[in-house]
Amino acid sequence: MARISGVDLPKKKRIEYGLTYIYGIGLHTSRAILDATGIDYNKRVFDLNETEIAAITQEIRESFMVEGDLRKKVAMDIKGLMDIGSYRGLRHRRGLPCRGQKTKTNARTRKGKRKTVGAA
Predict the structure, then answer these.
(1) What phi and psi, each to the nearest 5 degrees, are found at residue 69?
(2) Exposure check for the chain: N or C terminus, fewer CB within 10 A?
(3) DSSP state of 13
(4) 115: pLDDT confidence band, cut at 50, 70 and 90?
(5) Kind plus residue range of the DSSP H or E element containing 8
(6) Which of 41, 33, 39 shows the shortest CA–CA distance to 62?
């Protein structure tokens, strides 16, 4: 099993899709990494040898921020918005949608389970 950036990649998937299991790497970035390292998209994760895994790891380390570092950066960016008191920061603090969505009927993902108010 290939372990890259602290993530165990699924064995039977094509490497093109297996890399997307790493936080911060999507399909486009995955393909860019494979192009830079010269590895075929159709190769399965269990078919990779140690040199190919090392090449992928090196490319990710040099070019992209992933996993823990990226999560920390996102959290600090949100905390910065809250600290300066911006509208988006206030919405984050209150647990409401930040990007202009309506909240009268939907937004259950952000608001959580319904709390009934005023029912006697």
Answers:
(1) -65, -40
(2) C
(3) S
(4) confident
(5) strand 7-8
(6) 33
Domains present along the chain, CATH in parentheses: 3-64 (1.10.8.50), 68-111 (4.10.910.10)
Cα 69 from Cα 113, distance rounded (Å): 31
* Separation of alpha carbons 51 and 101, rounded Å: 47
Q: What pLDDT score was predicted for residue 14?
A: 95
Rounded distance between C-alpha atoms, residue 56 and residue 7, angstroms: 13
Amino acid 120: pLDDT? 65
Q: Helix and strand tally (H, E) in the chain? A: 6, 2
Q: What single-letter DSSP state applies at residue 45?
A: G
Angle at the Cα of 72 from the Cα atoms of 69 and 77, rounded to 5 degrees: 125
CA gap 23, 63 in Å, rounded:
14
Residue/partner pairs of 95-103 with CB below 8 Å, 24 or more apart: none
**In angstroms, rounded to a whole number, what is the distance separating the alpha carbons of residues 102 and 80?**
24
- What is the full DSSP assignment across 79-105? HHHHHHT-HHHHHHHHT--SSS---SS
